[in-house]
Design goal:
4-stranded antiparallel beta sheet, 417 residues, alpha/beta, globular, Aspartate Aminotransferase, domain 1, 7-stranded mixed beta sheet, 2 domains, 16% strand, 38% helix, Aspartate Aminotransferase, domain 2
């Protein structure tokens, strides 16, 4: 693909073809899809739609081949083996699969490697998305483990030293986001993996906001498990992925049981297939997997180096806009600090929902609310923020439109006098 991220790509996306002037700054929630991704799913549904891994017909074989080819594409993209990628309904589901498997291990239904006992510790950060917090809260409640967390400061940022202070010899799990969906903070993964290994803890990475925006190779990062989603990576909703080191996935009990994930079933017991099939009970989101694979191939052709360079430019531009607009305060890393291409901010005297409605009236789509991170917002002293987030199709014109509109918000609501 000769094109580079930015305005040249917008023709690939039907959303912008329908409304060329659209300013879509909510890719951190759901990214737009290229036509080729939509077409890939539709073409499969029209021509190759059949059950996968069931039966011996040619139709089943063709569908299974396409399904597994998509898995291979995703696995290569994130530096994993094809046995190390499990399809899930979304990233939230993937994180729950890990926590539920550990709960079953703790109840004696799986390998003791994942069993937690009373007094063991699970470590997260105060900045986590609820999807990477609530499953660990419930695991702690089920097992008697203690949930501990690295606190955030007034900017919503946690530190490596803060994390070290809550890790101990009893820590069994360290779960954290690669990129915060509120602050854009990029976690020092290698350092955290080293800390976890020093105490024998399992690492769980929420990679939803990193996989679509930078080069992410889980094998090189050294994490034990990771979760990411399709709809944030230019793909369809209804599917996500769980990464796990193959030997660990084979030891983790499946969170869901039923058809297609077994080897032998008697009236007394069942034995399960190796990963990834052991986690894929029942009918899978096959059409969505085809679309996910097509989306990953699109990003791969762009080149994640080019994608990351483009989004670094967008990150700087977004931060500059927020920091130079009177009455607007930035959450997270300041100008010049490393961050992802999403910015959350507060407008003095105006509720975030009103800010979002004003921007929406100007044709600018952003996200408002607590972004599924209430503890972080509670630490910031606000119930909600406004967030603008970029992707491969975001342009400097989009950022300029945000700046123009944001500068008018306080005057519109009569709070700049």
């Amino acid at each position: 693909m000769a094109m580079t991220p930015g305005s040249a790509l917008r023709a690939d996306f039907p959303y912008f073809s329908a409304d060329p002037g659209a300013v879509y700054l909510d890719s951190g929630a759901t990214a737009q899809r290229p036509a080729r991704v939509i077409d890939a799913s539709a073409e499969f549904a029209r021509k190759d739609y059949a059950a996968v891994h069931r039966g011996s017909s040619m139709a089943t074989g063709e569908a299974t081949w396409a399904f597994e080819e998509a898995r291979e594409a995703v696995a290569r993209f994130v530096g994993a083996g094809e046995r190390e990628i499990v399809w899930t309904s979304n990233a939230t589901d993937a994180l729950n699969v890990i926590a539920l498997g550990m709960a079953d291990s703790s109840a004696g239904l799986g390998d003791d490697r994942f069993a937690l006992r009373a007094g063991d510790e699970i470590v997260v950060t105060e900045a986590e998305h609820h999807a990477n917090l609530i499953p660990w809260q419930r695991l702690a409640a089920k097992t008697g483990a203690i949930l501990r967390w690295a606190p955030v400061d007034q900017r919503g940022l946690w530190t490596l030293d803060g994390l070290r202070q809550v890790v101990s010899a009893r820590t069994r799990v360290i779960a954290f986001a690669h990129v915060s969906n509120v602050t854009g903070f990029v976690a020092p993964v290698a350092d955290i993996v080293e800390i976890a290994r020093s105490v024998g803890a399992v690492t769980v990475l929420d990679a939803c906001q990193s996989v679509p925006h930078m080069s992410v190779k889980f094998g090189e990062l050294g994490v034990d498990f990771a979760a990411f989603s399709s709809h944030k990576a230019l793909g369809p909703t209804g599917i996500g992925a769980l990464y796990g080191r193959a030997e660990l996935l084979d030891m983790l009990p499946p969170a869901r049981t039923g058809g297609s994930m077994i080897t032998t079933v008697t009236m007394e017991k069942a034995e399960f297939l190796p990963a990834p099939q052991r986690f894929e009970a029942g009918t899978q989101p096959v059409t969505e997997a085809i679309g996910f694979g097509a989306a990953i191939s699109y990003l791969d052709e762009l080149g994640m180096g080019a994608v990351a360079a483009h989004e670094t430019e967008m990150a700087h531009a977004l931060v500059d806009v927020v920091e130079r607009t009177p009455g607007v305060s930035l959450v997270g890393p300041a100008a010049g600090e490393h961050r992802a291409a999403l910015v959350s901010f507060m407008v003095q005297g105006v509720h975030a929902h009103d800010v979002g409605q004003f921007l929406d009236d100007k044709g600018i789509t952003v996200r408002t609310g607590h972004h599924c991170a209430q503890p972080l917002h509670r630490a910031l002293g606000t119930p909600s923020t406004t967030r603008a987030s970029a992707s491969v199709y975001t342009t400097l014109d989009d950022v300029a439109a945000l700046e123009s509109a944001l500068g008018d918000v306080r005057a519109f609501f009569g709070v700049d006098r």
